[in-house]
Write a structure and sequence with these properties.
With 323 residues, the protein is α/β, with parallel strands linked by helices. It is built from twelve helices and eleven strands. The chain has a single domain, classed as 3-Layer(aba) Sandwich (Rossmann fold), CATH 3.40.50. The strands form two sheets. It has a seven-stranded mixed β-sheet, sandwiched between helices. The protein has a four-stranded antiparallel β-sheet with strand order 1-2-3-9, with helices on one face. The longest helix has 15 residues. The model has no long low-confidence stretch (mean pLDDT 93).
Length: 323
């Protein structure tokens, strides 16, 4: 497939003029799209931006059963997050964007005096999570949020921003929801590393392959985040990088690092729609609680390896504040 030689007139992340062709990637089975990179901020993105119907095909229909497999992990993540905020504010309103079944919210609520809200892109998952965990989960993303401006104290977005077709508008919506001094907590891939296998293999084989994770539309660099957040009305506080073992694989520095890219040149086709599970079936699949002390010990140790310097990690953790 021939690529489009002309990129955007300005970078959608930093507004710098011009961009260079980086590679082509398989967005979904049978659909290859161009990716451009900005020399100004180091971010990359699909251009032209994929149509909504193309983006929707990146996500096979899921009846949310996969979320049940990691229920206790997500529940304990919520507990840990509540503990970490105890010294900042004793109460407030906490919003989790892309909350799936709201399991992190359930753990957070159990451990704190905060009000919790969720946004979930899958209507089926939002409805199931509301029933299962007794939560307020609205379908949609930040641009669809039904709550008034300045009604939220903390917005949590775990691996969401890179899926947004309009990330600046999504961040501005988060800023509008936050009250004075409110916090935004982002976790997202280190964009240049996230895209690296796709770029390397495109140069090596001369053809498009999938990206490391399906549905990623933007590949943000660490240095791009401060200016982007500032444009949205937020002030960057800290950026940490982590997941160093995954970074070695993304760089191709481990044996067979790119084997899966060679074996799977296009994503699997969408799965057939399955009937929704009842709350009783969901609870049966969740199973008995895992060891909380063991999880807390392991999670505490892993957090020691979230470093505020360098860009060696495969993922970034970002904290920002309402300006």
């Amino acid at each position: 497939m021939n690529h489009n030689p002309s990129g955007p007139s300005e970078c959608p992340v930093c507004r710098a003029p011009g961009a260079s062709f980086a590679c082509q990637a398989v967005l979904y089975a049978g659909c290859e799209k161009d990716i451009f990179s900005c020399a100004g901020c180091g971010s990359s993105y699909y251009w032209p931006s994929p149509a909504p119907e193309d983006v929707a095909r990146c996500y096979p229909y899921s009846y949310y059963g996969d979320f049940l497999k990691q229920y206790w992990k997500d529940f304990y993540k919520g507990r840990m997050l509540a503990d970490s905020l105890a010294g900042w504010r004793g109460s407030g309103t906490f919003l989790d964007v892309g909350c799936a079944l709201g399991t992190l919210l359930a753990g957070f609520r159990e451990r704190s005096g905060w009000k919790v809200l969720g946004l979930e892109y899958s209507k089926e998952a939002a409805e199931a999570g509301s029933r299962l965990n007794g939560l307020t989960i609205a379908p949609g993303g930040l641009l669809d949020a039904p709550w008034p401006d300045r009604s939220v104290d903390y917005v949590h977005m775990n691996n969401v921003l890179e899926h947004e077709s309009r990330p600046l508008e999504a961040l501005r919506a988060a800023a509008r929801l936050l009250g004075p001094g409110g916090r935004l907590h982002l976790t997202l891939p280190n964009g240049p590393l996230d895209l690296r296998p796709t770029r390397v293999l495109y140069r090596r084989w001369g053809k498009a392959v999938v990206t490391r994770h399906g549905g990623h539309l933007f590949f943000f660099s660490k240095r791009s985040l401060g200016p982007l957040l500032e444009r949205a009305g937020l002030r960057l506080l800290t950026v940490k990088n982590f997941h160093f073992k995954s970074a070695l694989k993304a760089r191709g520095w481990t044996p067979g690092a790119y084997r899966l890219f060679a074996a799977h040149l296009s994503p699997a086709p969408p799965r057939a729609e399955a009937p929704p599970l009842s709350s009783e079936e969901c609870r049966a699949r969740i199973g008995a609680p895992r060891s909380w002390p063991r999880y807390r010990l392991g999670a505490g140790w892993r957090r020691l390896w979230r470093l505020p310097f360098g860009e060696m990690g495969c993922d970034l953790e970002v904290f920002a504040e309402k300006s």
